[in-house]
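yo

u said u wanted the structure for the complex thing, so here. seqs first:
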Amino acid sequence: MIFVLRPDATEAQIEHLLGRIRELGLTPHISRGVERTIIGAIGDERVLREQPLDAIPGVEEVLPILKPYKLASREFRHENTIIHVNKISIGGVKIQIAAGPCSVETSEQIITTAKAVKAAGASILRGGAFKPRTSPYSFQGLGEEGLKLLDEARKETGLPVITEVMDTRDVELVERYADMFQVGARNMQNFNLLKEIGMSKKPVLLKRGLSATLEETLMSAEYIMSKGNYNVILCERGIRTFEKWTRNTLDLCAVPILKHHSHLPVFVDPSHGVGVWRWV
Amino acid sequence: MIFVLRPDATEAQIEHLLGRIRELGLTPHISRGVERTIIGAIGDERVLREQPLDAIPGVEEVLPILKPYKLASREFRHENTIIHVNKISIGGVKIQIAAGPCSVETSEQIITTAKAVKAAGASILRGGAFKPRTSPYSFQGLGEEGLKLLDEARKETGLPVITEVMDTRDVELVERYADMFQVGARNMQNFNLLKEIGMSKKPVLLKRGLSATLEETLMSAEYIMSKGNYNVILCERGIRTFEKWTRNTLDLCAVPILKHHSHLPVFVDPSHGVGVWRWV
Amino acid sequence: MIFVLRPDATEAQIEHLLGRIRELGLTPHISRGVERTIIGAIGDERVLREQPLDAIPGVEEVLPILKPYKLASREFRHENTIIHVNKISIGGVKIQIAAGPCSVETSEQIITTAKAVKAAGASILRGGAFKPRTSPYSFQGLGEEGLKLLDEARKETGLPVITEVMDTRDVELVERYADMFQVGARNMQNFNLLKEIGMSKKPVLLKRGLSATLEETLMSAEYIMSKGNYNVILCERGIRTFEKWTRNTLDLCAVPILKHHSHLPVFVDPSHGVGVWRWV
Amino acid sequence: MIFVLRPDATEAQIEHLLGRIRELGLTPHISRGVERTIIGAIGDERVLREQPLDAIPGVEEVLPILKPYKLASREFRHENTIIHVNKISIGGVKIQIAAGPCSVETSEQIITTAKAVKAAGASILRGGAFKPRTSPYSFQGLGEEGLKLLDEARKETGLPVITEVMDTRDVELVERYADMFQVGARNMQNFNLLKEIGMSKKPVLLKRGLSATLEETLMSAEYIMSKGNYNVILCERGIRTFEKWTRNTLDLCAVPILKHHSHLPVFVDPSHGVGVWRWV
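structre next:
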C-alpha cells in the first residue's frame, strides 16, 4: 500500500502516519520527492482494504498494490482450472455450450427443448425454476416442480442441468436436483448466498452483475472459494451502459483480462448482451 | 402498448399481430401512416411486460404506455405517504435525519455515538449488525450481538433504530430488534428478501441499487408493497458511473422525479455519493 | 409521433394539443383507452425532434416513431454500401485492415512501419499528423510535415493512407494528402467539422464518441451525408463505462445492430477497447 | 510515478526498467516487499503521461503520483480565482446567475427575455447564435445575426452576454460581440478550439463533456490556460449514465471536489441535468 502525502503535510502528520502503519502490522518505507513525499507500507494489505486510511491527516491518496483476491488469482494457481460436471470438462480446450429455455414451464416443453439442445450440439441444459423478475406481477417460476421437470429432462437426454438459485433457503433444495448452480447478475453480491453455495461442492456459474467491475466479480468468486468450493465458473453477460439499442453492453474484452488475472473458466452469455438472433 | 410495424410488414403479418393482441386480452386499434403503420393495444398491458412481443414478425418496436408499477405510483395515491416510526413522521414537512456508525462494534461505541447523534439533532439511529462487504476477509458485522447493542442504544436515547437485513433467514430476527429495516443497494433486486420484508409491517428504507434505474427502484418498492407492507421509504444514494473522484455519483435530481411519479417518502444518503466531509 | 396524455388531461388541453399538432403540419388521430388517451400524429416528424412537445399541458410523454436519420438508414438504401479507396473496397465481403503507428514521427519510422504493415497483410496505412491529446504538454503531432511523411510511405508501399483531421481549418490541407479522413471519437459531434468534411468526396472513417449512442453515431454520419459525401465508414472503438481494467468497453454488438439499421460499412478498432496485445 | 512489478519480474527486467527511468530523466528508488517489488520514479512525471510505460516487460501497473494539470490546480494558486466580467465578479461570495433562451431568434424575443432575466435578478444574459444540434435538419442558429441581437439586448439591459463558439474560425467573430465565450459539452475536448480561445483574454465558461471525468475537465481548462487565458470558469452540467428519466445525471458533488482540486470558479447548469421546471 502506498500513501501519497499532501504537499503541505507536516512532520507531525508524517510521524503519526508512520505510527498508524506500524500499528496495522505493516512496515513503512519513506521516500521524499521534490513535489511529494510517498510512504510505502510493506506487508499484507488485504485486511486494510475497508479502513478509511485516506482520511488520515496529511494523506492525499492511498494506492493499493496487492490484489484484494487470492484464491481466484492466477498467482495462487498458475494453470487453468478445469471443472468436471458429470462427463464434461469446463475450462479446457473444448468450448462447452449451455442452452435451454428462460423458464421451465411444462414437461413437454423442457423435454422437447432438451432434445433439441442436445441435437444442436450443446452439452449442458439450462432452465429456470426460480426466476428473478423485475415485476412482482410476472411469473416467478415453478419452484421445486420446475426442478423435477429438469431432472426428467436430464434422465431423458443425459445432459447435466444448470439452474438458478436466488435464496439462501433454497440452496439445499436446488443442490439436490441441479448439477450446477447459477448465481444471477442481480445476486452477484448477495454475499450470504455466495457463502451458502460455498459450502457445497457443486460447480457454480457466477454471473457478473450489471454494474460490477471485473475485480468485484473476482471478489465474489473469492467469497465462494473462501468457504471451500473451488468450482467456480465466471460468466460475462453484459454490463449496463447508456446505450439503449442493446439490453446490456456485452464486454467481450472481459474474457482475456479475466483469464489473465484468474485461473477460473469463463463463460459468455450473449443472450442478455443483445438479442443477436433478431438483428443478424 | 403501441406496436410500430416495419415499413415492409405484410398484411398477413398485420393480421397475425391483431390476432395475438386479442388473444392477450387487449383490443387493437390500427392506424396507417405514410411511413409506418402503428397498432395501439388497449387494456391492461402490465402482465405483458416480459412477453417477447418485439419478436413477432413485422414488428419493429413495442412502446409501453402504462407504468409497470401501480401501488407505488402517484396515480394510485395522490397525497404524499407519511410513515410513522415511534414518535417521528417520515415524508411530511419536517426533514428527518438518520445517523450512526457504519458497523456496530461495542456497547461503548454505539451508546456514545447514539448520544452524539441525538445531541446533533438527528432523529433516527443507524448502525450495521450485518455488513455486506466486498471482501470475504473483511469484518462482516456482529450479527445478533450487534442488534442487542442497538437495542441498548435505543433504550438509552429513545431514538428509533434502523439496521440492514441481508438474508431472508434473518428477517424475523432483525424485525424483533429494529424499528426500521434497511435494504442495501446490493440487495435492491434480491426479490425474495423484498417479499419476505413485505410480509412485515415495519417500515423499510429501500436503497437504490448501483445500476438501478428509478423505474426499477419503484418496481422494487412495488414488490414489498404487493405483499402488504406499504411503509416503504426510497433512498437515493448514488449510482455507478465512469467518474472516479467520487465513490458513486449522487443523482440528486432523482428526488423531484421520484416525488413526481410516486407518493412514497425519499431519503438521500450522500455518504456514499462522496466523502463530503473530506472535501468541504 | 405519439402523445401519451396524463390521466387527468382536460378536454381543453386535448383540444389545444390537437391544434398544435395541426399547426406543425401533422394529422392527429385520437384513441381513448381505459387508463390513458393517446394521440398519434401522422406525417414527417423529423423536424419536430427538438421541439419541447412534452412541455405541452396534459402531455405525459412523447414517443417518436420515425428514425431521426434518413440517408444513413437501411430504408433509404437497402444494399450494403461499398466504398472504394484506390484499389480496395470497404464494406464488401473482404475484411480490410488498417494499421500503423499512433503518431507519425520520422521518415524512417513511418516507412519501416508501412512496409511491415503491408507485409502483415493490412491494406490501409494509418498514422496521426494531428493528435488530440488530453494534455497540452504532450506531443501534438508533426502537422503538415507528418502528412508529407505519410505521402512518402504511400509512394513507397502503394497503401492508401488514413489520417485524423481535427480542425475545420485543416480539412483542405488533409484532403490534399490523405486518401481517407479520420474523425476521432472526441470530434464525433464537432458538427462544423462534419459539415466541412461533407463537402469533400473523400471517404471518412467516423469514430463513435466515448459516450455516443449508436443513434447519435448515425446522426453524425447523416451530417456528413447531408452535405453530399456519402462515403462514410462507421467505427466502433469502445465506449466509456465504470470498468477500469480496460481503457474503454468495446461494444462489439454494435456491429450487427449498426448493419441492421444502416447500409454503411463498419470498422472495429479494438486497440482502444483494451490493450489486447498485453493480455493475451 | 510508481512502477509495481510482476511477482515473476526478473533481475534483467528490473535493470532494464531502472535504465529506462533514468533515460526519461527521473531518479528510480527501488523497494523490495514480500509479494511485490515497487520502483518509485522521482521527478516531473507529467510529460510521461502518454508513454506506454506499462508495456515494459516485468511491469504490472504504473501509478501516477503527480496531477497532470498544473495551472488549474489549487497547488498552483491557493486562493479562489475571481473573474471580472464588466461589473460583476464570478468566483466570489455572491452567486451569479446566467439565464436566457436556448437560441436567439428575433430582436423582440431576445430583448423581452433579457429584460425578464434582469428583472428576475440574473446578472448575465445567455443565448445561442451558433447551436450544436444532433440533427443536421434542425435549426442551427442565426450566426452573426444572432450575435448582433445579443449586442442589442446588452445595450438595452446592461447585462453582459455569454454565447457559444463551436468553430476555431468563429472565435474572432464571437469575441467581437460576446463578453464571455461558452464552450459546450460536445466541444470540451476540441483541443484546437480550446487553444484558439486561450489566445483571447475574454472569460470562458467551459462545460464538462457528457463523458468527461473531472480530471479531464481540468485538463481542458489547462489547455486554455496554457495559452495565456486564465479566465476559465468550469461548468458542471450533468453526465451521461444509464438513467433515462433525466436527460443527464447532474453530478452535484463535482462542485466541492473541483473546488478542492482547483482555484477556478464553478457554475452549475441544472437545465440539462433535468427538466426541473417540469417535475417540481
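The interface with chain B takes residues 2, 4, 7, 29, 31, 33-36, 38, 40, 42-44, 63, 65-66, 75, 240-242, 244 of chain C (CB under 8 Å). Chain C is about 30% helix and 20% strand.
cya
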